[in-house]
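Re: Re: ligand-bound prediction request (bumping)

Still looking for help on this. To restate: I need the protein modeled with iron/sulfur cluster bound, output as structure tokens. Inputs repeated here so nobody has to scroll up.
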Amino acid sequence: MEQHHYQYIYGPVTSWRLGKSLGIDPVSTDEKTCSFNCVYCQAGRTTVLTVERKVFVPTEALIRELRALPEMEIDSITFAGNGEPTLAKNLGEMIRAVRGIREEKIAVITNASLIDRKDVQEDLVLADLVEAKLDVCSADSLQKVNHPSAEIVWEAIVTGLKTFRKIYQGHLNLQIMFVAGNQADAADIARAALGIGADEIEINTPLRESPVKPLSPAEIGKVTDIFRSTCGTAVKVRSVYEEKREKSEPFCRRATERRRGKEPE
Ligand code: SF4
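Reply:
Sorry for the wait, this slipped through. Here it is.
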């Protein structure tokens, strides 16, 4: 039975990518705040479309909440939520503070829209794992699939990811969400992804509640084959339907559904 309502933390969420992971939402606004408004977003439409970095959650408040958490076994701690975590200006400070009180590996899931910025790179290098979005292979498809804030430039995302790869010693995953709008671009996206030099590429499709339909196992199978033949042995390619999916049992369902949408029945 739920005893508390948590403001900044949620989960743990069991995912095929991060194991049993406690979520931290460093933005945690009532209205969804993001630099993208992706067609498939499980958290609904973006209300505040912005690239402005600011402090949304004081680091001390997050740490207080984390200290109040009941004992639980988790594999990792993930900065994500229902907005873009790199919009939090104190992301680096938060990662350092969490590392000071927890031993688990720390991941950040980002849409990579600000990754060409030095201050964002300096924050992300502190994580053990960075999972970055790369759904498209051109400025036009970025508009079609991710509906970015006006300041975001497609080429800067690619350059930023390449620069970040050079300075980042941790594990860099690219996550590519396939829906009807980018399915035909799989070969071009695979070539763009290979050029980043990531450790892993994850092929996904929205299996949780989403405004758009997921691709079928056969369609994702074809996309995965394209990626594997393009990337060869240079980078491991994982695919959502090939992974074992487990249902999550969050300590606070309300806090978790607010960030992730509802699990399918
Ligand atoms: S999927 Fe992620 S990046 Fe896209 S709108 Fe939703 S929160 Fe933002």
